[in-house]
Design brief:
By secondary structure, this protein is an alpha+beta fold. 42% of the residues lie in helices and 15% in strands. Strands 1-2-3-4 form a 4-stranded mixed sheet. The longest helix has 18 residues. The radius of gyration is 18 Å and the shape is globular.
Length: 154
């Protein structure tokens, strides 16, 4: 009986250790109006520890979302790179998202699907796997400098 209890405790401990990080790609194909999916994506992306709330624009086109964050306490350039990454993920996973905004206490970054697809040189609906998106983002962000910036502040 002691062995059984010991094995049971060990098994439960190991299950707790194998808890995987949330995977944003499980939400692929979601819609802007699916609040649970939008919040689930926010919880699995960089800056999730600063996430406050999300607003969905679903009444009329352009459909979009605004994710509100607390101040992440990081350099502006790093914040911008993470905003680019997060927007690319939202556009890849939510096919009807046309506008994505990230609102921080001191600035808001706005992305439109057509402009971002042109900047990345790809149609986000053609991206099927997370690794494919990461590779594309890494290539583009390596080239990023002040002359190649995507951003426009709102």
């Amino acid at each position: 009986m002691k062995r059984f209890c010991l094995l049971l405790v060990l098994a439960i401990s190991l299950v707790g250790c194998t808890n995987a990080e949330p995977d944003a790609f499980e939400y692929k194909g979601s819609k802007v109006g699916d609040n649970a999916a939008v919040v689930g994506i926010a919880g699995s992306l960089p800056l999730h520890e600063c996430y406050q709330s999300v607003e969905l624009q679903t009444k009329k086109r352009p459909y979009g979302l605004t994710v509100r964050y607390e101040d992440p306490g990081m350099e502006r350039a790093e914040q911008e790179r993470l905003a680019i990454r997060n927007a690319a993920v939202y556009f890849t996973l939510i096919p009807n998202a046309e506008i994505v905004r990230f609102a921080f206490p001191n600035r808001t970054y706005a992305f439109s699907r057509p402009e971002m697809e042109a900047w990345f040189g790809t149609d986000f609906s053609n991206i099927r796997h997370e690794n494919e998106l990461k590779q594309l983002m890494n290539q583009k962000l390596e080239q990023l400098d002040s002359n190649n910036s995507y951003f426009r502040r709102v």
